[in-house]
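Field log, afternoon session.

UNIT: design team B
ACTIVITY: writing a sequence onto a fixed backbone
BACKBONE:
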């Protein structure tokens, strides 16, 4: 019996505190207590110190003087002075007064004087905010105090393209090989003052080389249940998040008036997840449970069909996930030889977005280097950039921000780079009759030419028109224009478009299909997206609009199915609520004055695309023979 009690006690302690990872934490001091001590000092300040690592893993103490408390709506900061510069990577360094933790070094103003100023986020406010969960943000992290502009301390020294607008744009980017075994061991002991590395992006290539992009700061506090606090100011300020975190060694600290920072070195394995990111910093747990919420991508690079590289990518869970993922694709392209901006190329894309409980979204696209003429020079934008920008803007971002509870499980994408000539077809010439005989389908001749005239293609096709829907003309082929009354002339328009401008030129009736104002279900939402993805850069779209037969739309509107659901009565006094929402698509018939006929052309040959901005139109007349 005694033994059983002992085992229960041991198990209780293990589950309560399963952390050989955690060193004991000192007590904390409230903001009010710290302020009373400062106010009671005859010198107007009190001594304190903060702990951080400047080299290796040894924690060093830095003496400071607390000078007062700054307040503005939504922000409370304890101000201090120090004789050494405050560097990127010190964010979160715990500050102590009389053996109690009062908060995190979070803000700095580095000037050219012998004394430097900084700001401390109170640990009591960090805990209070973390417990309260998501709430409105202050909107800005910087503040002015005694004529000095204080900004959040940086968390890296490398500017990452695509992330310039978040967290100052500077991050820590590190690479490591697949060789295991480091000085941290599997479970390093964590305590306030040690470095914390927070991952936003991680990828591993086919050789096992791993690159991470994130922030370097310092651990502020760990409670006895494994909850961890750090940074003292926002990272991405995205409230509920999932970032993986580690600890690391510090190679050294670089001091500069403009950009002082710590150099991160060897890192531990991932130790847990940060789950909250707001005004007073980040917090999370030493636990791997939440890491399942990270977003996974598989990316494959090919060179003219031959596999060159493959990558497993993990991206933090945040409202900014699409931006982070796009930055990852950009960085991988820069490092692993994707086509450059001034390099003429084509990128073929095949992607698959898996969604829990739904059919995957499949997409294929071919993207050429976009070119702009500048004098005698031609400037190109990378075909790879065009490809992933289209994916994240038109597919991933659209799915990520859906309102239907759809969850993306993972993404796989294969991109094939074809270097060399720009394989874009432009409209060379076309032939279409200016007078089309009523009842006879006209013939369209069309010629497409690539930029270097290497592979011109042509097509002759009969435009099939349902003449029962077209207004019968009164004039013949021989009637001269001066004898015609404009109101009696039956006109039509031929329009030739690339994919990008096709959607911009849809009729009102067509827009109801491609851009409905509502969706009946998640399946309806996904079907609509899939239908729009069929409009690709490897197709040329030809449409003929002709004046509709008199009364056609009046008749269609009269006989159209009632858009009101059955059972809804006529009542002038109030709106009728449709319980349970709509069960089928309700589409109105609009009198646009024209009927539209689409010309089905074959796909463009493999490896070529149609000029996305192609927009040609031609007016013609319907006449009697």
């Amino acid at each position: 019996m005694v033994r059983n009690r002992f085992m229960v006690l041991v198990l209780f302690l293990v589950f309560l505190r399963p952390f050989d990872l955690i060193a004991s934490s000192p007590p904390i001091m409230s903001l009010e207590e710290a302020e009373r001590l400062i106010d009671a000092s005859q010198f107007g300040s009190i001594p304190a110190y903060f702990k951080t690592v400047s080299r290796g893993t040894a924690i060093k103490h830095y003496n400071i003087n607390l000078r007062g408390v700054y307040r503005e709506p939504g922000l409370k900061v304890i101000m201090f002075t120090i004789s050494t510069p405050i560097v990127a990577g010190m964010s979160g360094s715990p500050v102590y007064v009389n053996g109690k933790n009062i908060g995190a070094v979070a803000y700095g103003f580095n000037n050219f004087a012998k004394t430097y100023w900084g700001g401390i986020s109170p640990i009591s406010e960090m805990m209070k905010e973390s417990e309260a969960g998501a709430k409105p943000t202050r909107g800005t992290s910087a503040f002015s105090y005694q004529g000095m502009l204080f900004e959040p301390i940086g968390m890296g020294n490398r500017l990452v393209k695509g992330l310039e607008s978040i967290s100052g744009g500077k991050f820590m980017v590190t690479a490591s090989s697949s060789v295991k075994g480091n000085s941290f061991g599997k479970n390093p002991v964590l305590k306030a003052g040690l470095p914390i590395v927070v991952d936003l992006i991680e990828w591993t290539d086919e050789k096992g080389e791993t690159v991470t992009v994130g922030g370097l700061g310092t651990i502020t506090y760990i409670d006895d249940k494994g909850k961890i606090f750090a940074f003292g100011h926002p990272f991405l300020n995205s409230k509920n998040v999932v970032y993986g975190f580690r600890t690391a060694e510090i190679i050294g600290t670089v001091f500069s008036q403009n950009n002082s920072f710590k150099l991160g070195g060897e890192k531990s394995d991932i130790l847990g997840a940060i789950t909250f990111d707001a005004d007073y910093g980040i917090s999370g747990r030493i636990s791997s449970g939440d890491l399942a919420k990270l977003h996974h991508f598989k990316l494959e690079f090919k060179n003219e069909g031959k596999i060159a590289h493959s990558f497993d990518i993990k991206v933090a869970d945040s409202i900014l996930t699409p931006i982070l993922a796009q930055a990852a694709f950009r960085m991988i392209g820069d490092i692993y030889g994707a086509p450059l901006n001034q390099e003429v190329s084509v990128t073929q894309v095949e992607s698959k977005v898996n969604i829990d409980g739904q059919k995957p979204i499949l997409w294929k696209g071919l993207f050429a280097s976009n070119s702009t003429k500048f004098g005698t020079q031609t400037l190109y934008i990378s075909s790879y950039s065009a490809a992933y920008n289209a994916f994240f803007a038109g597919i991933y971002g659209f799915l990520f921000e859906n309102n239907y509870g759809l969850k993306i499980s993972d993404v796989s994408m294969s991109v094939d780079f074809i270097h060399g000539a720009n394989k874009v077809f432009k409209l060379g010439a076309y032939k279409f009759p200016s007078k089309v005989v009523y009842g006879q389908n006209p013939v369209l001749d069309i010629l497409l030419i690539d930029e270097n005239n290497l592979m011109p293609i042509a097509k002759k096709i009969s435009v099939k028109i349902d003449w029962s829907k077209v207004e019968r003309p009164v004039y013949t082929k021989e009637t001269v224009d001066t004898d015609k009354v404009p109101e009696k002339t039956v006109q039509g328009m031929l329009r030739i478009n690339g994919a990008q401008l096709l959607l911009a030129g849809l009729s009102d009736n067509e827009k109801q299909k491609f851009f409905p104002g509502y969706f009946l279900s998640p399946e309806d939402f996904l079907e609509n997206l899939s239908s729009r993805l069929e409009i690709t850069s490897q197709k040329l779209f030809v449409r003929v609009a002709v004046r509709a037969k008199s009364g056609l739309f009046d008749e269609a509107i009269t006989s159209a199915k009632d858009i009101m659901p059955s059972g809804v009565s006529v009542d002038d006094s109030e709106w009728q609520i449709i319980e349970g929402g709509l069960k089928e698509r309700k589409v109105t018939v609009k009198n646009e004055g024209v009927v539209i006929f689409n010309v089905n052309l074959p796909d463009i040959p493999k490896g070529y695309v149609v000029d996305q901005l192609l927009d040609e139109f031609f007016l013609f007349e319907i006449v009697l023979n």
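LOG NOTE: The chain has nine helices and 34 strands.
NEXT ACTIVITY: expression trials, pending approval
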